[in-house]
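name: query_chain
kind: protein
chains: 1
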Amino acid sequence: MNTATEQSTIPGLIRNIVQNIHPDTNTFMTYKVNDVWVEISYRQALQKTDAISAWFLEIGIQKGDRIALIIENGPDYVYYDQALQQLGAINTSIYPTLTETEIEYILNDSGAKTILVGNPFLLRKVVKIANNCPALIRIIPAFDDFEESIAKANLNAGVVGLNQVIEEGSNLVIRYATAINIAREAILPSDTSCLIYTSGTTGTPKGVILTHYNLTENARVSLIQIPIIEKTDIFLSFLPLSHVFERTATYHVCLFMGCKIAFAQSLDLLAKNMAEVRPTIMNCVPRLLERIHDRAMKNGTAAGGIKSKIFLWSLKIGREVREVKEAGKKPGLLLSNQHKIAEQLVFSKIKERTGGRLKMLLSGGGALPKNIGEFFGDLGIRVLEGFGLTETSPVMSVTETDRIIYGTVGRIIPGIEVAIQNVDTRHIYTVQTYDSFKEDFQSDEGEIIVRGHCVMKGYWNKPEETASVIDPEGWFHTGDIGRFFRGNLQITDRLKNMLVNAYGKNIYPTPVENTYLKSPKIEQIFLVGDKREYLTAIIVPAKDILQETFNLDDTFFEKPELFIDDKEIIDWIKEDIKRQSHELAKFERIKNFKVKRNPFSMDEGEITPTMKAKRKVIEKKYAGPIDEMYLQETETD
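structure:
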């Protein structure tokens, strides 16, 4: 590690880089403009940061003011964030996918004074609700030619483009240079750095208060667990910076280490950007890895014959090598030679699609199915998992680079305590720390609770909600169910997700859903069965495979009927439901299901921005079809 470990405020990190790690002429960020990758140096970033800070001071922004952002990933996010952070203002990032009503709620709840807006579509959302937000004094589009979008709005807030802010601020920097330095030096580690509003599967969003120390210490100790990250690494960023996972695991980690950040253009162009940027590290979500796995399996086996046999043989050799290494041994001469052949014929081609330089992927935001982690391990691609919540800054545990236990989320990070508590009796089974780690330790299952430097200050304006999750002993109750397995933390499910069937049997849906998601035919699955005699499910088929198998065009998915009643398609999915059901206990098996034509979506309010199902919303919205599944039982196992 480097001297960045001593930093405890966000604005201190970038200045440490130019003082101790890189010259300020080195590249900090890169992004694509008109099909060309443009590089931004630390010096350029700091100049724009100071210009925006000077402009903020000119309009009266002070320490503690909330400053909103609703913008996609890119350099503008970083300039704006650094500018407000060094004044002690509070970053209030808003997911671009949220509705106008949700945006209005967050602006009013936080009392945000300005908002940076990323594109014309988002500006139209903000314009519609801006006059309902009395604290809002400035709207700042991060693009030119925004006048048409505001022409007829009659806004109470002023509107000024980001380029104009930077231009005017550049002329003010000399005047405010001393004030900026004083403000930056006055920031305490305990000061609030940001409000991150939880998307929430139920209820109103809550603003999570995270301090500078929460965030910097979380990144610092996570790096202890992942020592292979170096100042020469290139991160490709595509997960939203409005979410704490990407902000910590890419942005803040790069600010600690001096790594370069490349901003992907979009999720649709991610594969293209990977080939162009050739990243060494990337943070991702399980679903992306599942899609890469599904595509690789399809491409490897579709042709049949000798090509398919070579692909499957290579995976078998990869698995044998992985298992030998996991046992602490070295592959023998024959296996090593076979592995070289598999690498040349199969693995290298799959890796080349990622740019060919990936030394690790870090998966977060949800549980990674065990078989998907093992698949990447068989290829020789290291996939680490992290676990945590917005309320825990977010990392509580992360996989060690030299000890991957698939199906777990790693070792507890230094400086915190993690306990497993009986849900009913509140008895604490065990308390584990980084220092108490033992490779063979296992515990009973219960709610995961945590205390230490990662735990939030509380929820903004919500003392009762804060008290309901942080108990008098300082334990934050995550609402997640899990246990320790081979020393690592293992997640079972969310406490709120737990289904109790009519016979009183507790069922955690996530492991059951992940079992069925092993089928390449299934894109999404939502388990139903609370207070019912048996389980049913709403299933969304994988669109590409469905179209290819049944020769369907896009008009099939534009039909008004929400569910597909084609018997041939239902039977096609039922084949895999039956196959996967044998891995489950009898009471965990689906007895009936409906096939939803299109995926659950954020626009419909059915899932959160982190892709978690809003159980109450879905159960209420599809109550009729759900009841039908219990009127006409169809045995699938």
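note: The chain has three domains: 3-187+226-280, 288-356+358-495, 498-631.
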